[in-house]
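Pilot study result, target chain (250 residues):
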Amino acid sequence: MKREIAAPAALGGLLLVGWLVTAGAKASPLLPGPGAVLNRLAGFVVDSTYWGYLGTTVLEAFGGALLGTAVALPMAALIHRSRWAAAAINPFLGATQAIPAVAIAPLLVLWIGYGLGPVIMLCALIVFFPILISSVVGLRHVDADVVDAARMDGAGGWQLLRQVEFPMALASVLGGIRNGVTLSVTGAIVGEMVMGGSGLGTVLTIQRDSYDTAGMIGTVVVLALIASAAYSLIHHWERNSRVIESIGKS
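Predicted structure:
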């Protein structure tokens, strides 16, 4: 536990020192120092309008993550159980990742319109693939002996999937959700910057156009904190699930 705290603190300290040296050397006139960014962050805290933008981005990101998860998990179960479904779906999964989010966003505007809906849909499309793949991999690596024992006890179909396979694959499923949630924050920002909106992507656009680099870095820090908090919470859940799984196997 000490290492988990000390290692990121040491790396953060090194990055901060490098930032201070670079800003102090005036390597770039558009690179603000940490003090300027902290002042902007303090201003964000007391700005109710900024909190409104933040709330919109959080709603878009986590709404998209929930939607993507709700679609990915049943499809993972279908691919796991049906060879026909796996053969039909697998070739298209890689192709979907070749389409950039920036290219999908204008199409969503044409099909759905503006507002929360298309941004949430974009986030869902971005998180869908990593969650699906991790879930399928986790289900395929469930201990076959445990599954066979459950079948001998009368478990089958939905009961086997719900009570045995998904719990044992939970660590892999949560790993995919962990990566997906962090990607959904990026998806929300991309969606807002391309399709418009009232979230932090819009704030970044305004700050960019006004050359407010301190404000931009401050907003990026806020986004990083949101993603890091979600990542850490799900990672903690994932570690607990691994402990429970190891106890069950023993």
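One observation from the pilot: The chain is about 85% helix and 0% strand. A full batch analysis is planned for the follow-on phase.
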